[in-house]
Amino acid sequence: MNTEGRRGLASMGPILFVSHDATRTGAPIALLTLLKELARRGEPRFEVLLRGGGELTEEFRALARVTLWPDAEPPAASPVARGSRWSLWPTGPAVAPGECLRDANALLAEFRARAVSLIYSNTITNGEVLVALRPLGVPVISHVHELEYWMTHRMPAAALQQAREATTMFIAASRAVANSLQVAAGVPEDRIVTVYESIDPGEKPGPAARGAARARWSVPEQAFVVGLSGTMDWRKGVDLLAPLAREVERLSPSAPVHWMWVGGEREGPVAGMLQHDFRRCGLESRLHMTGTLPSARDAFAAFDAFALLSREDAFPLVMLEAAAMELPILCFEGGGGAPEFVRHDAGFVLPYLDLPGMAARIVELCGIPGRGRDLGRTGRRRVADDHDVTNVAPQILELVQQVWTNGRP
């Protein structure tokens, strides 16, 4: 960012970052990663508004002042009484008297007093909040991580309209998201800028981490492990895993392929469904489920390849995490933004829901280890060049500066 831009950021009042919750899922993790980088840089000033709590709440609180939206349930560990309608959490171990706000007017007064200069909404679903905050009279950036199915079938039309009308400029997490904004939300192209998701790549784990991960989840050392990650729902394609495993078994009965799902649940109806299908296919010993983990990388160390079965995924962070660990990526064309990363040289892009095709590629990777290593090295370089948060954060700050100054990108 140029010197003039940096002076502009320094002169801004705090940016209000709005997250729909603080769960350990894609959009909140992406926001937390960005805020950690901004905190490391020391500018601009910012605070956070959460519509709901979650496991990441305390990590947000460690970075900035955090406010909980009315009627949201604070996380169990929060010192805020659950009877509070507005709960304002400053950085620190406790909430002092007078820091529980009861109505929207009090909230707006607090934000005005702190001279909030711009609202950065981290999802398309915050329309209600943006309308409530409109009296602040500040520009709004909406960073969108949702695709057409979610906008069309999982959001009320009124909420989508609220977000569209309240937003000054949209940041799309991939070209697929940008297209969905135009098709499903009617957003003009000139109000959309694509900035791909980013992570802190970290170091590639060594053999010791691989052995520890396999031992922890009872994976044989000689197994070829296909990793998957995410919430266990229809969009993530959890129902496709057993048919894929069966197809791999049909193609190569001797291939030692194991399947490891990181995240989601280890018990309950969906986990039970998955276990049921693997058991009926005679593959129960090949399935490993970790449940939600504080750090997915601990489990990713056990993988040899990473498969995305998603029907709809904007630009999954878990894909970037896997690529940073030099894992080849398999995904479906039409399932979101993943093909924009994988292309022809960081893994394989299969036709939508082509399980036989994906199974054939998995068998190929299992039989030719060098093939996966070459694809994985390309993926790690791409993450370092294009998706490292230290490189992406300045792009976002440039847009913040432009919107704050001009109202448009």
General description of the model:
The chain is an alpha/beta fold. It folds into 2 domains: 3-198 and 389-406, 3-Layer(aba) Sandwich (Rossmann fold), CATH 3.40.50; 207-386, Glycogen Phosphorylase B (Rossmann fold), CATH 3.40.50. 42% of the residues lie in helices and 15% in strands. The protein has 17 helices and 14 strands. The chain has helices at residues 3-11, 26-41, 57-61, 104-113, 127-132, 148-154, 157-166, 175-185, 207-216, 241-251, 269-280, 297-300, 317-324, 338-342, 355-367, 369-386, 389-406, and strands at 15-19, 46-50, 66-68, 87-89, 118-121, 140-144, 169-172, 192-194, 224-229, 257-262, 287-291, 305-307, 329-332, 347-350. An 8-stranded mixed beta sheet has the order 4-3-2-1-5-6-7-8. Mean pLDDT is 89; it is low at 1-6 and 74-102.
Topology overview:
Layout: H1 3-11, E1 15-19, H2 26-41, E2 46-50, H3 57-61, E3 66-68, E4 87-89, H4 104-113, E5 118-121, H5 127-132, E6 140-144, H6 148-154, H7 157-166, E7 169-172, H8 175-185, E8 192-194, H9 207-216, E9 224-229, H10 241-251, E10 257-262, H11 269-280, E11 287-291, H12 297-300, E12 305-307, H13 317-324, E13 329-332, H14 338-342, E14 347-350, H15 355-367, H16 369-386, H17 389-406
Parallel strand pairs: 1-2, 1-5, 2-3, 5-6, 6-7, 7-8, 9-10, 9-12, 10-11, 12-13, 13-14
Antiparallel strand pairs: 3-4
